[in-house]
Amino acid sequence: MRPFDYTRAENTEAAARQAASGGTFIAGGTNLLDLMKLEVMTPEALIDINRLDLGEIEETEDGGLRIGALVTNSDLANDARLRKGWPVLSRALLAGASGQLRNKATTGGNLLQRTRCLYFYDRAMPCNKREPGTGCSAKEGFNRILAVLGTSEHCIATHPSDMAVAMRAKEDSKFISGIGAAGEPTGLLNASCIIAVTAEVGQGASTVVFENIIKMDARVWGDEESTTIWIANRTVKPQLASMSIAVGTGGMPVYLPANGAADRPFQTLYGRPIVFTEKCPALGTTGDIMLVNLAHYYIGDGTAKNRSERSIGLKFDYDQTAFRVITYTGGVPMWRTALTPLNGDTLSPIISLATRS
Ligand SMILES: Cc1cc2nc3c(=O)[nH]c(=O)nc-3n(C[C@H](O)[C@H](O)[C@H](O)COP(=O)(O)OP(=O)(O)OC[C@H]3O[C@@H](n4cnc5c(N)ncnc54)[C@H](O)[C@@H]3O)c2cc1C
Ligand code: SF4
């Protein structure tokens, strides 16, 4: 490890000042110290922020929680308010690392930890993230834990924090069912272009039948594009497993391979992958299974509205400065209405199955 200066910041003003002069914050140190030992990160000055007043979890007026950057992963995961209101976040935290590490690791450090890409840690190998311009070893190397979507030509690393993924999960849920008002995106289910394929005559309330699948497929726009996928609640799975197509007097399974349950299911319908998610409504309700071309759904971050602010007013009595960062994310379907072709039924990039009764 290379030599470095060490300072303990006594307040946020001092910490901000020292960081502006090139210092690096250290909180729990569970990621930073490893990187320093490997000389992947070589800060000349460390600023220990553990004495700052950032260890509280407070309720906000609009029903949220404000989590201090120094709240440990253990304290956050076990907070009764978090466990009740945001159980996915609590469970994601408890899924990470070990009890010992979670007792030291902090919220700020967790979100700002560096990627777990093996080549990032291996200084003998090229890595654009560690040394820009050297190349990306992972693209042709060991990349099983890295990203499939959302990559760039320079780097395919994923964000390593389980907690960050859980925070994004809330957004995904709104991209499916958001109402398009009260600060929510317009979710796929509330798209004005959605086509809800009607159930078959006499179809049972909690069922999905092969005719539904055939009819949904016939209505999707852009069915040749790789961005067209099925999304479904897991409660739909048993319906798919028992689904078959009539062949003469017999039948063939639709979702399971020909020799039945001995092999893995195909996980596709008409060659398109199925993603199972709890964010879709449960079996029997519109949205339990959808066929969507996601290239026709816009997601944007409100770069112009995103802001970071500081105030000496909030903690004036304590001679402290408060910082806050606010980011906005929105989502909206690209199409206003379904397309009416010259002949035939309407088409849309968003197809659902109507509620069965
Ligand atoms: C063996 C092992 C297993 C792990 N498994 C998992 C896992 O399964 N899931 C998972 O999500 N994580 C896992 N982790 C990562 C662990 O969660 C992180 O190391 C930890 O959350 C980092 O927090 P820290 O406070 O120790 O950060 P530090 O190591 O102190 O800092 C990390 C980075 O954040 C910066 N930083 C810290 N606090 C602030 C702040 N307030 N403001 C600005 N910058 C700041 C530092 O400068 C540094 O760059 C694992 C780690 C280890 C060692
Ligand atoms: S994906 Fe490539 S550039 Fe990114 S961290 Fe790994 S090796 Fe480096």
What does this structure look like?
By secondary structure, this protein is α/β, with parallel strands linked by helices. It has helices at residues 12-20, 32-37, 73-77, 80-85, 87-95, 99-104, 107-112, 118-121, 162-177, 210-219, 237-241, and strands at 5-8, 24-26, 45-48, 57-59, 65-67, 195-197, 228-232, 244-247, 250-253, 268-269, 272-276, 289-293, 297-301, 307-311, 322-326, 329-333, 350-353. The protein folds into 2 domains: 5-172, no CATH class; 186-299 and 332-353. A hairpin with a 5-residue loop joins β4 and β5 (65-67). The chain is elongated. Residues 115, 117, 119-120, 127-129, 136-138, 146, 155-157 line the site of iron/sulfur cluster.
Question: Rg, please?
Answer: 25 Å
Beta-strand percent range: 15-25%
Helix content bin: 10-25%
Task: Name the poorly predicted regions.
Answer: none
Q: What topology, given as strand order, has the largest sheet? A: 6-17-12-7-11-10
Average pLDDT figure: 90
Task: Outline the fold blueprint.
Elements: E1 5-8, H1 12-20, E2 24-26, H2 32-37, E3 45-48, E4 57-59, E5 65-67, H3 73-77, H4 80-85, H5 87-95, H6 99-104, H7 107-112, H8 118-121, H9 162-177, E6 195-197, H10 210-219, E7 228-232, H11 237-241, E8 244-247, E9 250-253, E10 268-269, E11 272-276, E12 289-293, E13 297-301, E14 307-311, E15 322-326, E16 329-333, E17 350-353
Parallel strand pairs: 1-3, 2-3, 6-17, 7-11
Antiparallel strand pairs: 4-5, 7-12, 8-9, 10-11, 12-17, 13-16, 14-15
Helix pairs in contact: 5-9
